[in-house]
Specification:
Number of helices: 5
Number of domains: 2
CATH superfamily of the largest domain: DNA ligase/mRNA capping enzyme
Shape: globular
Structural class: alpha+beta
Helix content: 10-25%
CATH topology of the largest domain: D-amino Acid Aminotransferase, Chain A, domain 1
Length: about 290
């Protein structure tokens, strides 16, 4: 009997050790990616590549699997990444302008939809915009990505259009064109820059509005046409600034407002003297990583 109990204890100890080892092996490692800074006027626009800032979900292809920027696995179907190159690609999962919520719903599923006839993934594209491990400057990386597209027989791998402008006035025209088409803004990437983990001043984002995140702490009932619906949400930023947001909601969102505790993204135009965002309007619920 004593030997039996010793055997049971040994099996339990081995099982726990194996489980802990598996958990350590599956430890999430964030990919080392670069991020842009807010646009500052440049002396020579022709030294930059300009592309549209897509309203999608950031993705990182490590050569074998698709990850979020936090390092979590994205459960894409096997056919979605079939034939993709065995090298890291930084990019954006994208459906179309104005379809962020539908995209988020698709890519956040806990299991892959392998049946292509019913899968929401059949309309998604991975828009690559950089090659993190390539040692060349951005000009060389752009040409490398263009060559990759010709070599990879996958309809789900695409590339964000990178163009050169001659005059700064063309930048304003391009931004207005994107905004008029319900786009988010532009990205400017210095052609001579190398890939740099973290904030990179050689990569700038240009938008006509500012945006930030806040947590929903309360709801205000609507009046008039919004009787029995949401009037406004009460939010608080990470800096502790509390205010209300009463615009930017669809009729569906007013009937089904973001729950208390939800993190939302809002647009605004500058700050008041008290540090409160001016003309704040609801944009969307923050993407779940």
């Amino acid at each position: 009997m004593k030997k039996y109990y010793l055997l049971v204890l040994f099996v339990l100890a081995f099982t726990v050790h194996k489980s802990l080892t598996a958990q350590q092996t599956m430890q999430v490692i964030k990919p080392k990616i670069q991020h842009g800074v807010t646009y500052k006027k440049v002396p020579n626009i022709n030294q930059y590549y300009v592309s549209e800032k897509l309203d999608g979900v950031r993705g990182y292809w490590d050569g074998e699997k698709l990850l979020t920027r936090q390092g979590n696995l994205i459960n894409s179907p096997s056919w979605f990444t079939q034939y993709w190159p065995k090298l890291p690609i930084d990019g954006e999962l994208w459906l179309d302008r104005g379809k962020f919520q539908a995209l988020q719903s698709c890519v956040s599923k806990h299991s892959a939809e392998e049946d292509k006839t019913i899968s929401c993934w059949k309309n998604v594209r991975f828009m690559m915009f950089d090659l993190p491990k390539n040692k060349g400057d951005f000009n060389k990386r752009v040409h490398k990505m263009q060559r990759l597209l010709k070599q990879v027989p996958s309809p789900y791998l695409a590339m964000i259009s990178q163009v050169k402008l001659k005059e700064i006035s063309e930048l304003d025209n391009k931004l207005n064109e994107v905004i008029a088409g319900q786009g988010e803004g532009l990205m400017l990437h210095l052609a001579s820059a190398h890939y740099k983990t973290g904030r990179n001043v050689a990569l700038m984002k240009l938008k006509k509005h500012q945006d930030a995140e806040a947590i929903v702490v309360g709801h205000t009932k609507g009046k008039g046409k919004y009787q029995d619906l949401l009037g406004a949400i009460e939010v608080k930023t990470v800096d502790g600034i509390a205010f209300k947001i009463g615009s930017g909601f669809s009729d569906y969102q007013r009937a089904n407002p973001p729950k208390i505790g939800t993190i939302i993204t809002f647009k605004y135009n500058g700050l008041t003297d008290a540090g409160i965002p001016r003309f704040a309007r609801f944009w969307r619920i923050k993407a779940i990583d």
